[in-house]
Amino acid sequence: MDKSLLKLIPYTKPYKSHITWNIIYNILYALFSTISMLTLLPVLEVLFGKTKKILKEPVYTGIGDIKQFGSDFMYYKISELTKENSIQVALLFVVLMVITTFLFKNLFNYLASHHIMHLKNGVLRDLRKSMYNKIIELPISYYSEKRKGDIMARMLGDVNEVQNSFFSILELVVKEPLTIVFALVTMFFISVKLTLFVLVFIPISGLIISKIAKNLRAQSMQAQKESGFLISIVDESLSGLKVIKSYNAESNFKSRFHDSVTRLLNLSNSIGSKNNLATPLSEFLGITTIAVLLFYGGNLVLVEKTLEGSAFIVYLTLAFNILTPAKAISKASYSVKNGLAAAERVFEVLEVENEITSKVNAIDKKTFDSTITIQNINFKYEDEAVLKDFSLEVKKGQTVALVGQSGSGKSTIANLLTRFYDVNEGTIQIDGIDIKDMTLHSLRDLMGLVTQDSILFNDTIKANISLGKDNATDEEIVEALKIANAFEFVKDLHLGIYTNIGDSGNKLSGGQKQRLSIARAVLKNPPIMILDEATSALDTESEKFVQVALENMMQNRTSIVIAHRLSTIQKADLIVVMKKGKIVEQGKHDELIAMNGTYSKLVNMQSFES
């Protein structure tokens, strides 16, 4: 059995009753498919005046005699009706019998479809939930090398493909095969010779169809990868539209998109051609079988006279009844190939091991009491070391600033403190407890993060600010906005805190967005605040507003400030100067200026620039 198929089984467990009922109704559908065809026999015999006269009611003698009993009982009823009434009543009886069996056949088909619908939609929802949970839980490092579009394609397209294609497997193993089996058993009863003839053709058809389907799965994989690449291009184009336009790079992006679309077109055409071939090919092979049957069976009726004409017509309808499920099986087998390829891509993400998780008996730490200790840490993103033997102690209530040129490792400290990444060597401790021994939830609860890019969501100001505190009242939100120096512009908005700020907050200016990010951190009210270049993307006027907001926020709390602009951190209790992952100087602003070293140079350079 295919690995992807085995991995899907746990997702079907909550829907076991639906699977059971689907199988039961499919068995009944297959049974009534054959019975409905058999009921045509008495109709034809009444029409041709060939009905057997049975005047004595038959007696049921056991399961081995069920076929004979059923046949005799039906002819007994027809004989009774014909004796007492006109032939029309007998004809009406057999026609109603046909209608009833077809009604049951279609009712069971509907009920089977009803249960498989619940199974398909339920598994689709559960797969999507698992996929989204995984996407949210995976560490930041996972996305540094993956395309967002590819993840989205797996989440939306591939999961849908699993739903659409994969569950045809139930029909592949129950409904259609049983329809064929019941029809074949009945055909054996009508004529052994003819049925053996049919059985020679079925394996040949199956062999031809499986040859064509062979490389379909590999092509489906390629097509799904290309879809991911396509979504990536659209995502990057929308995110970077200003840059694309300002650099006149429209033609470059258009050609990338057009190339991808063309590759997808060729793959889709190739897959589609093979899929489209399934129906006509199986139909042609089926009709060839029927044509040979007509010739051979016609001989048995007309020349050898070993088969009744009415029985031969019913036999042909049963043979046609095999064709439809045979076509469905060949189509479903193509579908399952697509589904397997999609499932493989879905499970590729679901099975990624999340290296940054809480330990089994991790400590749920609620308070920060004394110190953050960073001890002898080494860290590299890939090959190049970003931090080398780095140590630092931050006492409760202190504001510690990390400064240095780009690439000196400042932001990496923020990534390691929040456990977006884990240190390669060394330890980070809070109140003497290694952060790896704390639950991730409690660690991040102790911290508020304000980044250089103010990440906001397409929602109201209230929803964005209350992200870390769901039950916040309007008054608490207004208070946080005041501390963040943001209420002065929010109060002038048409709907105040209920104003929608657009995609990524694009209805607001850079300074306004940053102040909302600060308000969000203020409302969360964590004991440790990490400010990662919170003002570097702002103009001077916005910076002044944000600087006031930051100073308000940092009062009475421990702050680690990663700063590019040195004017913002002159009041810090400790300034740590970094260069190539190491500390080169540390002290207060005046002490560092007096040293006339790296910090002094940086200050002079920035004074000169401004």
From TrEMBL:
SMART domains: AAA (SM00382). The keyword Phosphoprotein does not apply. The chain crosses the membrane at residues 23-48, 87-104, 180-209. It comes from the Bacteria. GO terms for molecular function: ABC-type oligopeptide transporter activity; ATP binding; ATP hydrolysis activity. It is found in: Cell membrane. It is a multi-pass membrane protein. InterPro entries: AAA+_ATPase, ABC1_TM_dom, ABC1_TM_sf, ABC_transporter-like_ATP-bd, ABC_transporter-like_CS, P-loop_NTPase, Type_1_exporter. GO terms for cellular component: plasma membrane. The keyword Transmembrane helix applies. Residues 372-605 form the ABC transporter domain. Residues 78-338 form the ABC transmembrane type-1 domain. Keywords: ATP-binding, Membrane, Nucleotide-binding, Transmembrane, Transmembrane helix. This is ATP-binding cassette, subfamily B, MsbA. It comes from Flavobacterium urumqiense. The lineage of its organism: Bacteria, Pseudomonadati, Bacteroidota, Flavobacteriia, Flavobacteriales.
